[in-house]
Each structure stands twice: as structure tokens, then as C-alpha cells.
Design goal:
The chain has 406 residues and is of the alpha+beta class. It has nine helices and eight strands. Strands 1, 4, 5, 6, 7 and 8 form a six-stranded mixed sheet that branches. It has a two-stranded antiparallel sheet with strand order 2-3. The radius of gyration is 35 Å and the shape is rod-shaped.
């Protein structure tokens, strides 16, 4: 597992982010501390309890408010290429000062190639992934700090619930960007399946769909884990966690009463955050279903293209056979001695009949040449027929030039 610190505003000291401005005593800092890790393993409850201070006999000065929200980001870079990041964001709020620390864990990362909608997986442990993750974090922090921060939150749990809800909502909103990518790939799929396609490779479009389905599946895993663990609220407030579970499912056999707004001051925010996670998981499931339907359609298009290509190739062979069969028939009827060399108009007329089949075949092949990946084969067939015409004309005129030279 890799670990690093990347400042958003301020300086980084001893692995912690500190702002350049002074922080008033007893109030929340203007900017949160920020670190990020690269870890694909499941979140450890023990590690979270240590971070929150619940395993310590003296929790004074320890981070006490804690939530873990799913993180899905689709960001457009400065070069116009999109970056997709999947992971989770741990929100830690200091019990006394209400200072916020955000720790992002990246599970997977993708970057768009120069070809639109073609994404390549980038290993989160590689050095080239660091600037991408830095940029993604700036995009994630903006809505949390600019729109959802409230310095009047009564306690650390309230602040943590507010930040987790904002992060979950930001991730749900990112699904719309994935949907737009799917729409673009659909257009590419339609274009690659048409007869007029000349620049789109059908295989690359299918690969783009598979890669997008992986993105949706990985993000759905993060949302599913957040729903199952209740944003990990049980680490700091187990009774509230069980009360909310009872609210979700009355058949659960636990003694807790169903959660209400009076259960905790932050219960409304917690409920909103959980609903965002449920919606995130549902929308990602819908996207995966739509992508699987597209893959089925792509397979049908591929089969249709193969059948069409075989039919066109059969036509090409038939045209070439006619092209070479007509001259052979003329030569068999009259004999080469009566036609060659082209020393008189009658002989040239008979030779023209022999070339007529080749000329007709060349015209048919040139006018019916399809566009797309099979275009080159038809062009080579047309060139072969035209080359044969010139070869026969040269063979008929060569004796005349040879005789004149003597």
C-alpha cells in the first residue's frame, strides 16, 4: 500500500496538511488536512477505530467524528482527456477543534486515451498516477468545502455526517458523466457497424464498453460496502448504527428502536448520505445492465458484418471469374493466332471483345467497392483486373513494335 500527502492549499508537514492562515482556537480550520493512499483491500474496522480514538482509554485530542463515503470522480484534465477514479474517502473530525481531515483511498484509476472514450487502466501505485490523483482530489474537495461546509455544526459527528453526505452525493452525480460516456460509445458502435464506417474499429468499441463496465462494477462495490457498513458510523456510534438498521428493516432482530430525527442531531444528514449511496449503487447497476445489452448488440453486429463480408467476397470472386473467363472463351473460339498480333483493325476488334469482359468487371468492382475495413481488398481486385487489361494490350502490341524495330 502506498501513502503520500498532497496539499490542496497550504503546506505539508509530517504527513499532515496545514493551512497557511492561522487557525482560531476552538474553531474549525479553513481547509482540511488531506492525505491519500492506494489500497485495494477491504477497509479495516480496527484501523478506523484507531483513527477515531475509540480503542484508546484517553481519547482527548483524538479524531472522534468518522465516516467513510464512496468516491467516484470523472474529471476532465487540462489536456481534455478524462480521468476516472474509484475508491473511498475517510472523513475524520477532531473532537474538540472540529478540524477536518480527509483521507482518500484510491482503488482504481483510468485515463482516457487520445481516441475519445477509450480508457486505459492506470496502476495507482505507479509514479505517473500521482498527478492524476492530485487533480482528482482537488475536484472532490471543491463541493465538500465550498457548498456543504457549515461552521455552526454542533459537534464532530454532525460535521462528519455532513461531509459524508456531500461526498456520496458528488459520487452519485458522477454517474451522469459515465452515462454520457456510454452514450458516446453507443454512437461509435452504430458508426462502426455501418457500411460507411472507415475510421472506427469495431473491436476497440467493444473494448471501451468492457472497460466502462469494469468502472461501473468497481464503483458499485464501493457503494455496496458503504451501504452494508452504514458509512461506518458504527465505529463511533454503535447504538445509532443499529437504530438506523432497524429503521431500514423492521425484521432485524436487534433491541434498538427505529431511528428518528431525535436519535441524533445528525441523523437526517446520515439518512440523506445513505440514500445517496443506495441511489449510487442502483444507477451503477442500471449502467452495467445497459452496457451488457450493448455488448449483446455488438456481438450481433459483428456476426452480421462477418456474413456481409463473406457475401461481398463471394461477389468479388464471381466478378473476377467472369473477368478472366470471357477472354479465355474468346481465345478458345478464335485461337490466339487469329487475334495476335494486333496488326489490323479486324484483329483489334476481336481483341476488344476479349477485353470487354475485363473492362466490365473492372467497372463493376470499382463502383461496388464497399467502405470500411474490406475496402482495400476490393481495391486490390480492381487493380488486378486493370493490370491484366494493360498486360494483354501490351502483349498484343509488342510484336508490332518488335517488327518495326527490325
Amino acid at each position: 500500500m502506498g501513502h503520500n500527502c498532497r496539499p490542496i492549499a497550504g503546506s505539508c508537514l509530517n504527513g499532515e496538511m496545514t493551512t497557511d492562515s492561522a487557525v482560531p482556537t476552538g474553531g474549525p480550520s479553513a481547509s482540511p488536512a488531506l492525505t491519500w493512499t492506494t489500497d485495494k483491500s477491504r477497509i479495516s474496522g480496527r484501523q478506523l477505530r484507531e483513527l477515531a480514538g475509540t480503542d484508546s482509554a484517553d481519547a482527548t485530542g483524538r479524531l472522534d467524528g468518522l465516516r467513510v463515503a464512496p468516491m467516484l470522480v470523472v474529471q476532465v484534465g487540462k489536456d481534455g482527456r478524462r480521468v476516472i477514479a474509484v475508491g473511498n474517502m475517510r472523513v475524520l473530525v477532531h473532537a474538540s477543534s472540529l478540524d477536518v481531515k480527509l483521507e482518500a483511498t484510491f482503488a482504481a484509476l483510468w485515463q482516457e486515451q487520445p481516441t475519445p472514450c477509450q480508457f486505459t487502466s492506470v496502476s495507482v501505485t505507479m509514479p505517473e498516477a500521482e498527478p492524476l490523483m492530485d487533480s482528482v482530489l482537488q475536484d472532490v474537495l471543491a463541493p465538500v468545502l465550498a457548498h456543504d461546509r457549515d461552521d455552526n455544526d454542533p459537534d464532530q459527528h454532525h460535521s462528519a455526517a455532513r461531509a459524508a453526505k456531500a461526498l456520496a452525493e458528488s459520487s452519485r452525480n458522477a454517474v451522469a458523466e459515465l452515462r454520457e460516456i456510454r452514450y458516446q460509445i453507443e454512437l461509435q458502435l452504430v458508426a462502426s457497424g455501418g457500411s460507411d464506417s472507415s475510421s472506427l474499429d469495431h473491436t476497440s468499441v467493444v473494448e471501451a464498453l468492457l472497460q466502462l463496465n469494469i468502472v461501473c462494477s468497481r464503483a458499485a462495490d464501493q457503494a455496496r460496502e458503504a451501504i452494508r457498513e452504514g458509512l461506518w458510523v458504527h465505529v463511533t456510534d454503535s447504538p445509532a448504527y443499529h437504530a438506523y438498521r432497524r429503521l431500514q428493516d423492521a425484521s432485524i432482530t436487534n433491541p434498538a428502536d427505529p431511528a428518528t430525527p431525535e436519535t441524533a442531531t445528525w441523523m437526517r444528514l446520515h439518512d440523506a448520505g445513505m440514500r445517496q449511496c443506495v441511489e449510487l449503487k442502483g444507477q451503477l447497476g442500471d449502467e452495467s445492465s445497459a452496457i451488457r445489452d450493448l455488448l449483446t448488440s455488438a456481438a450481433s453486429i459483428s456476426s452480421s458484418r462477418e456474413a456481409d463480408a463473406q457475401s461481398r467476397f463471394t461477389v468479388l470472386l464471381a466478378v473476377i471469374s467472369i473477368a478472366f473467363g470471357v477472354p479465355a472463351l474468346v481465345l478458345a473460339l478464335y485461337g490466339a493466332d487469329l487475334i495476335m498480333p494486333l496488326s489490323s483493325w479486324p484483329r483489334a476488334g476481336a481483341f476488344g471483345v476479349a477485353l470487354l469482359g475485363l473492362c466490365v468487371a473492372a467497372v463493376i468492382t470499382a463502383r461496388t467497392t464497399p467502405k470500411g475495413e474490406h475496402r482495400r481488398k476490393w481495391q486490390m481486385g480492381t487493380a488486378a483486373i486493370i493490370g491484366t487489361i494493360f498486360l494483354l494490350v501490351a502483349a498484343g502490341l509488342l510484336p508490332l513494335f518488335a517488327g518495326a524495330g527490325m
